[in-house]
């Protein structure tokens, strides 16, 4: 389903599962190794110039033509290993049959705020450093539940009982056309956190301090909170799309002068708007069962 800025490949998702995983590196017919090397050389140089580290770790690649459902209506994915360098190449190729799989986690506090995090400037790539985004990351093992718990703990220090029972898979989206968007797939979850905004911020600062004392680099520099208000979120997404991700966040009560929201997060918020920013509506929609929308290459 084409939303203009991105595609929805599945929604109203029931318990997404990876039903197959080939641990051997995916390699399409034809010699593209040289093109992959050429694509990543420049990215690697840019990253290292800014003090970052450009890893080539394994990732889970998802086959776009093999997204389906099982007999219980659960979303099923067939996957194979790719490397991060492969992903840097494939994500700019809309004809690629395989794309890296990411998890994105949209958290809502107990007092109904959406919270974002400002990425550490020394991110994996300069494109992402300093951007304001939500919790998430690439799937590197064929287990979505374990990946979700790992990302939430690593980025926020939250342990599962604070959010897991209230976490709902919403949609699988990809082919983002926003400024920093790309063709990777995003499994989007929304969750009601069992903490208010102030307590969440306090816990995060304590967690960040512990990491820094251990000489570890936290994923986020700080958290920003935005009221989960349908009108306000709609205006934010409109501003992001109109200004190509770069604009002043002051209008929305956000503390950073140059609030730069990741384009992919704008896509996720846009999808959330279709449920009027209401988790109860998402729960009701899920009763219809998983709906698949094949990607048109």
Describe the fold and architecture.
It is a single chain. The chain has 297 residues and is an alpha+beta fold. It has a single domain (7-292), classed as Nucleoside Triphosphate Pyrophosphohydrolase (Alpha-Beta Complex), CATH 3.90.79.10. It contains seven helices and 15 strands. Strand 4 (68-69) and strand 5 form a beta hairpin. Helix 1 (33-49) crosses helix 2 and helix 5 (230-242) runs antiparallel to helix 6. The longest helix has 17 residues, at 33-49.
Question: What about the largest sheet?
Answer: 10 strands, mixed
Q: What would you call the shape?
A: globular
Number of helical regions: 7
Q: Over all CA atoms, what is the radius of gyration?
A: 18 Å
Structural class: alpha+beta
How would you name the CATH homologous superfamily? Nucleoside Triphosphate Pyrophosphohydrolase
Number of domains: 1
Task: Give the CATH architecture.
Answer: Alpha-Beta Complex
Gap between N and C termini, in Å? 12 Å
Mean pLDDT: 84
Short descriptors:
about 30% strand; alpha+beta; 10-stranded mixed beta sheet; about 30% helix; Nucleoside Triphosphate Pyrophosphohydrolase; about 300 residues; 3-stranded antiparallel beta sheet
């Amino acid at each position: 389903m084409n939303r203009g800025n991105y595609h929805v490949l599945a929604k109203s998702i029931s318990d997404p599962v990876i039903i197959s995983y080939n641990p051997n590196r995916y390699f399409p017919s034809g010699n593209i190794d040289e093109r992959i090397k050429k694509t990543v050389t420049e990215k690697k140089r840019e990253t290292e110039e800014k003090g970052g580290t450009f890893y080539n770790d394994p990732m889970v690649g998802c086959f776009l033509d093999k997204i389906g459902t099982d007999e219980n209506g659960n979303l099923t994915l067939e996957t194979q290993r790719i490397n991060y360098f492969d992903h840097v190449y494939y994500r700019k190729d809309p004809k690629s049959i395989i794309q890296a799989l990411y998890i994105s986690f949209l958290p809502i506090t107990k007092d109904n705020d959406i919270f974002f995090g400002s990425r550490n400037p020394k991110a994996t790539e300069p494109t992402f450093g300093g951007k304001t985004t939500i919790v998430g990351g690439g799937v590197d093992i064929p287990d979505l539940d374990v990946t979700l718990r790992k990302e939430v703990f690593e980025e926020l220090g939250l342990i599962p009982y604070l959010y897991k029972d209230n976490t709902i898979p919403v949609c699988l989206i990809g082919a983002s056309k926003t400024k920093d968007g790309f063709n990777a797939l995003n499994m989007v979850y929304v969750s009601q956190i069992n903490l208010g905004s102030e307590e969440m911020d306090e816990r995060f600062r304590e967690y960040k301090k512990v990491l820094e004392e251990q000489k570890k680099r936290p994923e986020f520099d700080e958290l920003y909170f935005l009221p989960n208000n349908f009108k306000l979120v709609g205006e934010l997404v409109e501003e992001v799309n109109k200004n190509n991700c770069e604009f002043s966040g002051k209008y929305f009560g956000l503390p950073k002068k140059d609030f730069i929201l990741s384009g992919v997060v704008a896509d996720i918020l846009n999808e959330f708007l279709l449920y009027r920013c209401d988790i109860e509506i998402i729960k009701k929609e899920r009763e219809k069962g998983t709906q698949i929308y094949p990607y048109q290459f």
